[in-house]
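Note to self: the last two entries modelled the partners one at a time, which told us nothing about the interface. This time every component goes in together.
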Amino acid sequence: MNVGVIVFPGSNCDRDVAYVTRDQLQQPTRLIWHDDPDLGDVDLVVVPGGFSYGDYLRCGAIARFSPALKATVDHAKRGGLVLGVCNGFQILTEAGLLPGALVRNRDLHFICDRVPLRVERTDSLWTQHYDAGQVITLPIAHGEGCYYADADTLKAIEDRHQVIFRYCSATGEVNEASNPNGSLNNIAGLCNEAGNVLGMMPHPERATDTLLGNTDGLALFKSALTALVDAA
Amino acid sequence: MGYDEDALLNGWTAMYTYDARIYVTLRPSVLDPAGTAVQSGLHHMGYTTVEQVRIGKYVELTVSATDEDTARQQVDRMCDQLLANPVIENYRFELTQREAIAAAV
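The predicted structure of the combined assembly is written out below.
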């Protein structure tokens, strides 16, 4: 699996992702500077967290127009795998690769915490190494993570089972009390219709090493790796 | 908006400068927690008659174009593609012509 991690001015999770794919999973990994229009021979493009271009105007609004992101859109349209985490999720919605938008958290606070998530699907290429209905814990760190889509879009997303992760209680109940940021339908992560593009606010790359006490995020990267090996 | 006749006679295309004042507002269906917090603050100050607060963005930009229609189309595209996110925001803008300058074709 050749991994490309896009690096924008202001990205701050790019090296964490590279640590997982290169050091832990032993996959060739390249950091790609934002003004590079050529992604090279990549299978998985990761758009990492951070504050791309200072998040001026709106989170992800300016990153969308960078050469590397335009190449990422082409990669996605060819069926290539794209993972957007946190700011990366915001960028993918701005770019139109994923429906909806991420707006200011319901309570206006920047939230830095660890939250339980329910894995909604295990038949997606991103989650095949999780168990059905499994509750995992991942870190979140965002000020604009409240997922919004208009009613018709939201219905289409649910009808097509595009939601991959939902905020839930420790025992897996999805309700308002377990919704940290006001996201509609407790959506924490969702994929596009084809399933090759995943965006999520929680940080799987920050939960892969036993040294940090939580490895719930590792199965996501392993799932993508398995999917690519199976496809090869 | 017509062309500058002297400029046309001399083989120049007149360019006009326009000031655009752009208002970006949240779509009514999108919650505005910041607006709600400000409304609460106003109520605490005694302005209990305030019924709703919605916070948006205001952008000023200057653009040159051969006529107002062209400038309007350009600003509209800028709003649609970058300045506003149509998923969550609406926009409107006003244009004012500033001055005419002649530019070589």
